[in-house]
Amino acid sequence: MSVKLKKIFETPNNENYFFGYYDVPQLSKDNQNLITVNVNDIYNIPTAKKKYEISYFNIKLNIKVVIGNTKTLNFQQGCRAQWLGPDHNRYIIYNDVENEKYVSRIFDIIKKTTTTVALPIYSVSKNGRFFLSLSFERLYWCRRGYSYDAIIDENKNNLIVPDEYVKIYDFETNKQKILFTIKDLIKIKKNTNMDNATHYVEHLMFSPCSKKFTFLHRYKIKDGGIFSRLMYYDIEKKTINIITNSGRMSHFNFLNKDKLIFYGSVGNIVTNIRKYQNLQKFFKYVLKIYKFFIKDNNIIAKKLTNDGYYYYNFINKNFRKIKNKELNAEDGHPTCNEKIGMDFITDNYSDYDNNHKPSLYYYSNDKNSMHELHKFSSISELDNSPLRCDLHPRISYDGNFISVDTFKDGFRKSFVFRIVY
């Protein structure tokens, strides 16, 4: 399949706009309206001391419509603003804070009204019935770049916060319930390196079928690194399942309801050493020597841990590593759509190695080949920092458009491209 991009829209010049993460479309289902957040300062981390304007652009008429403000924002995931199903055209849901509690707001673009739900969102089911929530108060201490600073709770700054939860909210009943806590996750196939580690949950992502969701159980261990377990929860069976327990897991996405694409490792001798508490002191010593000679996440490091892009099948539990050295050389944010089957679009990070010009790539599963779709600009001094601007490609609901966040002429911008197949 020969694929090209044709740019059809970009946010206004001399202003800073962005969206956030790669896991949800920025465009409405009718491909008419584009959600954005406006920031004045791109050289400091967003703070609850300021309000940030949320709007959408009619990309056909080039009209901007302001829908509200938020005090909950970060440069990686924005305020989790997204189109609410099942139509994904009329309602925008996003996070905010009210009376020292995180909440979510729902804006009706037809009636111009806003309603509030007393729980913040992380992932929303495609059918629009459910959303998942977690403790952003906990994430403040564990993952500042993916959290908010509106609520700073010292009680959440411990190795384990027993009541740290994942909740589900049901729009049909307007009720919420706890699905599991961090203590539940620690009990499942416990690694000895979990002792005296800092545990948390992040990156919740609903399957297109709205019946299960994936997430990461992460914990900081004594070697100074982060150990990641990719897991999923079956809503109907009420079960928690481990997909990978290698410690090496980065970004993932659903190709369809039964298949996943991810960048990480399924494990080998090197990754297995990190699971054991009694080997941590030895590993920490070896790690110092290792890091002196080998740069983090370079090609040699990734070969040692067997990192790369993998397909995972939920039905037969099988993994298949993509045998493409060029693709596996760099981590990225894969975006998928059933229109392109097992193919996907991904990106890379802006850094010294690519002359601070990140790119979008199309990977063809049938041909086992990748080609560059577009190269972008960056602000080199912000690369490899919490202020960086990852492309975070987001394919539209119908698979015909893709949007990204990027830098251009010193400003943050969102671009929209038509995908020409």
Specify the overall morphology: globular
From the N-terminal CA to the C-terminal CA, the straight-line distance is 7 Å
Counting helices, strands and paired strands, the structural category is mainly beta
- Main beta-sheet strand count, sense and barrel state: 4 strands, antiparallel
Strand tally: 27
Q: How many helical stretches? A: 6
In what order do the strands lie side by side in the largest sheet? 1-27-26-25
Low-pLDDT residue intervals, each spanning 5 or more residues: none
* Percent helix range: 10-25%
The Rg value, from CA coordinates, equals 21 Å
**How big a fraction of the residues is strand?**
35-45%
What does the average pLDDT come to?
93
Short description:
With 421 residues, the chain is mainly β. The longest helix has 14 residues, at 280-293.
